[in-house]
Amino acid sequence: MLVSTGAGRHCASKMSANRSRDWLAQAKNDLAWGEATTAAGFHAQACFIAQQVAEKSLKAIAYFRGAALVKGHSVLSVARELAVNGELKSAARRLDQYYIPTRYPDAQPDGAPFEFFSREQAEEALKLAALFLRSAENETGEAET
């Protein structure tokens, strides 16, 4: 189980809601960082941070729903625990592919990770990450008007 509600749900819910805002704020900041990173030509890093935006957005949702603890880094696994389906589930599969190969040379047959990722991949990954962020903003009531 990746998402645990823990004991003492009433206290956990209030604290979780506060932590939800923190996770959401960090996801927003990371998305801006990913956009700047793409503009600077660091495409592998932007793909990784897009995965992180999605992960943090889902964790914001989990904490908003009262989770006491959310473990794991797979966007798809957390999405499944939260019963997220449709476009986000498909996007989760895509973004999880950027968690390891964008950072570690031994994830590729040869060469450094930055040599394998393009601007198009980074831009697409950031668009997918933005879907998670908007979903989290809508569910938590933190959407900007």
Description:
The chain has five helices and two strands. By secondary structure, the protein is an all-alpha fold. It has a two-stranded antiparallel sheet.
What does the secondary structure layout of this molecule look like, with pairings?
Blueprint: E1 3-4, H1 9-39, H2 43-64, E2 69-70, H3 75-81, H4 87-96, H5 119-140
Antiparallel strand pairs: 1-2
Quick overview:
The protein has helices spanning 9-39, 43-64, 75-81, 87-96, 119-140, and strands spanning 3-4, 69-70. It is mostly helical and 145 residues long.
**Shape verdict:** globular
Q: Main β-sheet, in a few words? A: 2 strands, antiparallel
Q: Work out the number of β strands.
A: 2
Q: How many structural domains in the coordinates?
A: 1
Write down the CATH class: Mainly Alpha
Low-confidence stretches: none
CATH topology: Four Helix Bundle (Hemerythrin (Met), subunit A)
Strand order of the largest sheet: 1-2
User: What is the radius of gyration computed over CA atoms, rounded to a whole number of angstroms?
Assistant: 16 Å
Sequence of secondary-structure elements: EHHEHHH
Fraction of helical residues = 55-70%
Whole-number mean pLDDT: 91
Q: Which architecture does the CATH hierarchy give at level 2?
A: Up-down Bundle
